[in-house]
Write a structure and sequence with these properties.
Helices cover about 30% and strands about 20% of the residues. Strands 12-11-10-9-13-14-1-15 form an eight-stranded mixed beta sheet. Strands 3-2-6-7-8 form a five-stranded mixed beta sheet, sandwiched between helices. Strands 4-5 form a two-stranded antiparallel ribbon. The chain has two domains: about 180 residues, no CATH class; about 210 residues, LarA, N-terminal domain (Rossmann fold). It is built from 15 helices and 15 strands. The chain is globular. The longest helix has 15 residues. The chain has about 425 residues and is of the alpha/beta class. α6 crosses α8.
């Protein structure tokens, strides 16, 4: 099969970026008078999630340092639901892959899967919280605010989600996910708010990133502000979400998926492949077939989201840790994201097969897009057919820079793409 020629493009994002992340955090914590909210000697649990948030180790280390300056005794709690195979050791390994260690953050990491009951929501929905966090004198919540990959609502991913699902560990996350059909958009924020009201949440630090996956804003919030302020921050985050600038795609080639990239391996807001019935993102492209070439190193075999693809490579399949993947997707309340698609021996076979089954299109004219992952979308490869389309759209063309000339896809002797 004659594959289409490809050209690298760069999206010209105009995005805000913090020049000094540490200084910005210190200013925010001083603005909210952190030192007045912590008594000397109090043990403060600081949350650390499983996402690859920009500068996360530095952010956590600054929070730890400022809590210590306020007289507190901070420690870090892995806050990631069932990730890491739902084991204390597995969750520490997830943090290490993100550069979060006791040395990098300057505090002990206390990992446990034990939880205590905080209370119940309407309908008997039980809300749980990490026991070590409950036993602490206070909780400091750190998380990125962004559109969720499973549902749409006024509150999606952020501080409230970190309380309800991250600190809920496997049992708490499972309970929330079980009630997804009651409406994630209702259950998740209500659970987070209940925890904020019934436990000693000292403060939260909300993080916003730009389309370059850089820290754009940090905002310290009191727990009673979480709900209202997260709504505002989510709207900003939606405007900053990186996108694939193409409306219709025959084949999307994703070089890697991973838990640190997205909760479901690849961001559904980017691909438009939502596993929850009735959910959609009107700005996501219409994609016929998705090919996954590999799992990221940081995901440690957790292949959640692989079921949202149409084809994968044998290389990706061989890296799947089924225990981690199944625990994660079943805790989520669905096996859909953990289903394993047909696998092909190498990249070339996977891509050519995807084109073949994408519909009545000549291979050389296929509308093909290749991305590293759904988080890094500043640069990508597109086929010649899409180059012609972009050049006919002045508004779109002004936001894109073509790098070099269209060229044949290069494969090594094993049939895998030359990186």
């Amino acid at each position: 099969m004659n594959l289409p020629k490809m050209i690298k493009i760069r999206q010209l994002f105009d995005q805000p970026k913090l020049k000094d992340v540490k200084k910005s955090i210190i200013i925010e914590l001083e603005r909210k008078k952190l030192r007045e909210r912590i008594k000397r000697g109090q043990k403060i649990a600081v949350t650390a999630g499983s996402r690859g948030i920009a500068n996360i180790a530095e952010i956590l280390s600054v929070v730890v340092e400022e809590i210590r300056k306020a007289g507190g005794d901070p420690f870090v709690v892995p806050s990631m639901g069932s990730h890491g195979g739902a084991t204390p050791e597995g969750q520490i390994n997830v943090l290490e892959a993100l550069g979060i260690t006791e040395k990098s953050v300057g505090a002990q990491i206390v990992s446990s899967m034990e939880v205590d009951l905080v209370g119940e929501l309407k309908g008997g929905i039980k809300v749980y919280l990490d026991r070590k966090a409950m036993e602490a004198d206070g909780i400091f919540v750190v998380n990125r605010v962004k559109p969720h990959t499973d549902f749409k609502g006024e509150i999606e991913s952020g501080l409230l989600k970190m309380l309800a699902i991250g600190l809920g560990k496997q049992k708490g996350a499972e309970m929330i996910h079980w009630h997804k059909y009651d409406g994630y958009h209702r259950v998740l924020p209500e659970a987070g708010r209940l925890i904020a009201e019934k436990t000693n949440v000292v403060m939260g630090l909300a993080i916003l990133e730009n389309a370059h996956h850089e820290t754009a804003m940090v905002k310290a919030l009191y727990p009673e502000e979480f709900m209202e302020e997260e709504m505002k921050l989510l709207e900003i985050a939606k405007d900053s979400l990186p996108r694939i600038p193409i409306e219709e795609i025959d084949v999307l080639v994703v070089e890697e998926i991973g838990k640190e990239i997205s909760g479901v391996g690849m961001d559904t807001n980017v691909t438009g492949r939502f596993w929850m019935p009735g959910e959609a993102d009107p700005l996501a492209p219409c994609i016929s077939k998705i090919v996954i070439l590999d799992l990221s190193e940081e995901t440690h075999g957790n292949a959640i989201g692989i079921g949202l693809a149409d084809l994968i490579t044998t290389r990706a399949e061989e890296k799947i840790d089924r225990q981690q993947t199944y625990v994660n997707c079943l805790t989520q309340g669905s096996g859909e994201t953990g289903k394993i698609p047909p696998s092909l021996p190498n990249d070339r076979d996977a891509i050519t097969t995807a084109i073949r089954i994408s519909g009545p299109v000549r291979p050389g004219d296929a509308r093909l897009v290749r991305i590293k992952n759904t988080q890094e979308l500043e640069e990508m490869w597109i086929s010649e057919a899409l180059v012609n389309e972009i050049e006919k759209d002045p508004a779109l063309f002004s936001k894109i820079k073509m790098i070099g000339e269209p060229r044949e896809m290069q494969f090594d002797i094993l049939g895998n793409l030359a990186r």
